[in-house]
Amino acid sequence: xxxxxxxGRVEVFAPHMHTDVVRRLELxxxxxxxxAEEQFAVEFQPxxxxxxxxxxxVEALVRWWRGSEAVPPxxxxxxxxxxxxxxxxxxxxxxxxxxEVARWRRDSWEVGVSVNFTARQIAAPGFVESVAAALEExxxxxxxxxxxxxxxxxxxxxxxxxxxxxxxxxxxxxxAIDDFGTGYASLAYLGQxxxxxxxxxxxxxxxxxxxxxxxxxxxxIVRLGSDLGLxxxxxxxxxxxxxxxxxxxxxPRGQGYLVARPMAAGRVxxxxxxxxxxxxxxxxxxxx
Length: 288
Ligand code: C2E
Ligand code: MG
Ligand code: MG
Ligand code: MG
Known about the structure:
Layout: H1 2-5, H2 15-36, E1 40-49, E2 55-66, E3 69-71, H3 73-82, H4 86-106, E4 112-116, H5 119-123, H6 127-138, E5 145-150, H7 158-171, E6 174-180, H8 189-192, E7 197-200, H9 202-206, H10 212-227, E8 231-235, H11 240-249, E9 253-255, E10 263-264, H12 265-278
Parallel strand pairs: 2-4, 4-5, 5-6, 6-7, 7-8, 8-9
Antiparallel strand pairs: 1-2, 1-9, 1-10, 2-3
The structure holds ligand C2E and magnesium ion (MG) (3 copies).
């Protein structure tokens, strides 16, 4: 019925639906203003080599400061996609991330950056070209950029996504499967896509030591990754016993609040500066 009425009218189906629609419309126009008024920020969460605690990379995570309130990305990424704002926002995040990390690398810190992309961002016209342009403009070498996608991306419209991700891979960009183990993709995609990194979903890490099945599954994913020659990153490390178990399993990389929280570029910079001064090995940043 609402469709027949058309013309921008919002038909009330049920009270909860009305609230949903209004909320989404409000969020959509707020997002537009937010982009214009530069209310977005990028934070960086360190990823470490679990054996040495050396920071090998950072993950760029978008933040929306709506007044003094930080809106979680999971709440605004969907609406941003629906209102067509995800492409300009994603472009901005990518450029910010490349720019900062290119600067750190010029200070002789060998660090990489991963940036998240949704299925729709990848499907948008000119996606491959926009990534290439961001690298070109910021001077970040393609090898220092990792594109993170969820498994679902490889299921929905797999053909085109795989083609575009392969094109990026041909440029030298690395590819990570995010939230590994939670999607509905068949493992066969690992044989069809030039994947470099798998990121173990926090739901596995959360059960380490406490849940036998989750511990066994984590161990299996670590071994699978290693057998396939992939870099495995464990996400959501919060407790010391999780870190210990992952080290014992030989998981190469880790990320989580226990290691370091996402932080503003300035805080990463002071971390690097203190570290680079204190250490004799150039380009090495180690967390406690
Ligand atoms: P993700 O890519 O899996 O990112 C990891 C999320 O886990 C981040 O949440 C991070 O802050 C959080 N995290 C890290 N360590 C821990 C921990 O030890 N415990 C817990 N509980 N959480 C931890 P965040 O920043 O809220 O982002 C949520 C999701 O939103 C991301 O999940 C990603 O899918 C998406 N996202 C964030 N930034 C962007 C972006 O710039 N573009 C796109 N397309 N998606 C983004
Ligand atoms: Mg991610
Ligand atoms: Mg993840
Ligand atoms: Mg996630």
